[in-house]
């Protein structure tokens, strides 16, 4: 569900193309993605703070707290909310990850992690919301990941929060963790989570820094729909120096099959590889010839929460084998 | 309608010449559209190379080494099968559209009217959401399920109309609408209650040829040939059926049997088309009307020419769908509605004075 979550978050602000990776792209040659590009590191990594160090610094929880929503509106908290309806898989995972899961009283039916979610009431699915039931539950905060029901809930007198989308910059995920820490008062736990994320991303960045651009990639999220610019996955590909064959697609689009063949991706990521293996038009593409389509874990990369980094590291290890220790 | 409409055409009934010249023109136009469809795409390939690849496939001469294998794949495994599938589906929708319009004596009838589309969607949705692995080698369960769904919906509608004691076609039409609405509701419920990753299903429902393969055209062919042969074989009787019932019966036509054969044939053709291309609106509606406005209402001419217009139209619509916003694709249904409706209005205005008669 990589596509569904991020595309339903509404249009994210259009970003200019990021600068191209370090030097000239390597010409596409018939090699498998198992190979890596040669180079030498340019500098030793700066030391990252350890969990212990972060834990020792006590960040106090501060109330009253003002949080800026996606549309610029300010929401004031006088104390941590006790009855949260978290209408978003990433938010639920984050709140549980910082030990504040007991505050959640409702979510939507597609949220399935962590296991404790089983006992939390589902007040609709991702696109349909039982507003009456939400009012009945009397929450002191409703968190949404898309604005459709915002006005309706606000008119009913509820406190509604909609944070900035992380689609254009995955580093914003750490800020989202911190924001949840501030809201729930678990500032230290959130700081550990955020730092952990940042340092692991920084490690990937550092190790890949000396390398020129990596192999080209095509991700199929179903029926040749693929993430382009301004998407979380597009961002991930940039971080991993993978050349997205859909670099000229905005948000998500159904890429023309002949364009895929013409751009000849060296890596294909798909959660349903069989359909690609069976199409005779694609059987000359290397990942299909080698039966090496990477089956992505949508639970990780589809949800911009605490487990996202696992998906990111999984991709890094898969496509640059041996260089991440 | 008054039977007198046809008195002018008495000679037409008696000394009818098959419209070979019009059909030839139509086939030439389709051929041109097909060549354009194969030659143009989101990846630029020089026209000379396109022809070299096609001719080399036909063993007219050896393939030169300059042609990249990628181009070969694009022409032979993507564009060509896609154009052929669009041609077959367009022809199917055009012919079945004309048949339904004649059968129901209703200018608004289209191939999806009597529940075919909704039934097909439901069938596809059930298979898609059931988690059954729906592909086995080159064989896919999705088209089979949609085919079954479509046929079952029409069959139920037909049973209802028989049970109601009169097989009048308007009863069948209403039963079809009811079944269709019911199937759509079930599809909606299933989609609400299930996995969030519905994108492949949604894009299948929207219709298109992005998945087109040679095997699809080959699978479609037998059903289409059988269905279309029956329809064309009964085209003279479709003319007669435009008369009031008792006139037709006095001419010795077994109306009930013919109706049944035509409904089954048209549904067979439509369901087959739907199963590989999803739901593509408008083709079955406008293709027959264009022919009617241009060349009159004789079903012997109308049926084959509607097929040809539908085929040419859908080839060009698919070409637009895959090139307008290249490198991404649009659902072809958007193009057929976007281009089809203004064009249809143009034809209506252009031929004002004449009426869309003859259902």
Can you walk me through this structure?
The complex is a heterodimer of chains A (325) and B (359). Chain A contains 13 helices and 15 strands. Chain A is of the alpha/beta class. Chain A has 2 domains: 61-196, Rossmann fold, CATH 3.40.50.1980; 211-325, Rossmann fold, CATH 3.40.50. Chain A has a 5-stranded parallel beta sheet. Chain A has a 4-stranded parallel beta sheet with strand order 12-10-14-15. In chain A, α3 links the parallel β3 (84-87) and β4 (104-107). In chain A, α6 (172-184) packs antiparallel against α7 (187-208) and α7 runs parallel beside α13. The radius of gyration of chain A is 21 Å and the shape is globular. The two termini of chain A are 29 Å apart. Residues 1-45 of chain A have low confidence and may be disordered. Chain B has 359 residues and is mainly alpha-helical. Chain B has one domain: Orthogonal Bundle (ABC transporter involved in vitamin B12 uptake, BtuC), CATH 1.10.3470.10. In chain B, 71% of the residues lie in helices and 1% in strands. Chain B is built from 15 helices and 2 strands. Chain B has a two-stranded antiparallel ribbon with strand order 1-2. In chain B, β1 and β2 form a beta hairpin. In chain B, α4 packs antiparallel against α12 (255-277). The relative contact order of chain B is 0.17. Chain A binds chain B through residues 1, 3-5, 110, 125-126, 128, 221-225, 246, 248-249, 253-259, 261-262, 264, 271-272, 274-275, 278-281, 284, 298, and chain B through 41-43, 69-70, 73-74, 77-79, 133, 135, 137-138, 192, 195-200, 203-204, 210-211, 213-214, 322, 325-329.
């Amino acid at each position: 569900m990589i596509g569904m979550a991020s595309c339903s978050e509404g249009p994210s602000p259009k970003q200019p193309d990021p600068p191209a990776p370090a030097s000239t792209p390597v010409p596409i040659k018939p090699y498998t993605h198992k190979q890596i590009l040669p180079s030498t590191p340019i500098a030793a990594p700066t030391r990252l703070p350890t969990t212990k160090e972060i834990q020792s610094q006590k960040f106090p929880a501060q109330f009253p707290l003002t949080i800026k929503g996606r549309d610029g509106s300010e929401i004031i908290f006088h104390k941590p909310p006790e009855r949260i309806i978290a209408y978003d898989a990433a938010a639920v995972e984050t709140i549980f990850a910082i030990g504040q899961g007991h505050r959640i009283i409702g979510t939507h039916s597609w949220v399935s992690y962590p296991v404790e979610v089983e006992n939390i009431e589902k007040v609709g699915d991702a696109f349909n919301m039982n507003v009456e039931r939400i009012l009945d539950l009397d929450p002191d905060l409703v968190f949404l990941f898309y604005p459709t029901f915002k006005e309706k809930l606000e008119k009913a007198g509820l406190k509604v929060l909609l944070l900035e989308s992380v689609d254009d910059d995955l580093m914003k995920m750490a800020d989202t963790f911190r924001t949840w820490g501030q809201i729930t008062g678990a500032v230290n736990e959130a700081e550990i989570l955020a730092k952990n994320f940042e340092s692991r991303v920084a490690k990937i960045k550092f190790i890949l820094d000396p390398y020129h651009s990596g192999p080209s990639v095509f991700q199929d999220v179903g029926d040749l729909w693929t993430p382009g610019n301004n998407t979380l996955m597009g961002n991930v590909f940039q971080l991993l120096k993978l050349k997205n064959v859909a670099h000229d697609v905005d948000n998500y689009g159904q890429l023309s099959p002949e364009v895929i063949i013409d751009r000849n991706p060296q890596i294909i990521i798909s959660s349903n590889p069989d359909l690609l293996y069976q199409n005779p038009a694609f059987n000359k593409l290397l990942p299909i010839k080698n039966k090496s389509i990477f089956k992505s874990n949508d639970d990780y990369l589809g949800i911009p929460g605490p487990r996202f980094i696992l998906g990111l590291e999984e991709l890094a290890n898969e496509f640059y084998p041996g260089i991440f220790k | 309608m008054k039977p007198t409409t046809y008195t002018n055409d008495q000679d037409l009934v008696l000394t009818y010449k098959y419209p070979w010249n019009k059909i030839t023109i139509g086939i030439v136009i389709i051929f041109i559209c097909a060549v354009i469809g194969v030659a143009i795409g989101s990846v630029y390939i020089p026209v000379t190379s396109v022809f070299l690849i096609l001719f080399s496939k036909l063993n007219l001469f050896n393939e030169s080494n300059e042609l990249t294998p990628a181009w070969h794949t694009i022409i032979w495994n993507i564009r060509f099968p896609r154009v052929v599938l669009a041609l077959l589906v367009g022809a199917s929708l055009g012919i079945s559209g004309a048949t339904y319009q004649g059968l129901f004596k209703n200018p608004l009838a289209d191939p999806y009217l009597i529940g075919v589309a909704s039934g097909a969607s439901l069938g596809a949705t059930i298979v898609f959401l059931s988690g059954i692995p729906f592909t086995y080698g080159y064989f896919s369960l999705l088209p089979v399920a949609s085919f079954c769904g479509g046929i079952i919906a029409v069959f139920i509608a037909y049973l209802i109309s028989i049970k109601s004691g009169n097989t009048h076609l308007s009863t069948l039409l209403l039963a079809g609408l009811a079944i269709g609405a019911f199937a759509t509701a079930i599809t909606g419920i299933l989609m609400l209650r299930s996995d969030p990753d519905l994108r492949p299903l949604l894009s299948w429902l929207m219709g298109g040829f992005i998945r087109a393969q040679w095997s699809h055209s080959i699978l479609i062919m037998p059903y289409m040939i059988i269905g279309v042969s029956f329809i064309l074989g009964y085209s003279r009787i479709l003319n007669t059926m435009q008369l009031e019932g008792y006139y037709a019966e006095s001419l010795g036509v077994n109306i009930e049997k013919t109706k049944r054969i035509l409904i089954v044939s048209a549904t067979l053709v439509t369901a087959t088309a739907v199963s590989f291309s999803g739901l593509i609106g408008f083709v079955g509606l406008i293709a027959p009307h264009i022919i009617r406005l241009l060349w009159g209402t004789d079903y012997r001419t109308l049926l084959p020419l509607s097929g040809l217009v539908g085929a040419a139209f859908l080839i060009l619509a698919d070409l637009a769908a895959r090139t307008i916003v290249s490198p991404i694709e649009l659902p072809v249904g958007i193009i057929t509605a976007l281009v089809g409706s203004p064009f249809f209005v143009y034809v209506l205005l252009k031929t004002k004075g004449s009426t869309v008669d003859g259902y």
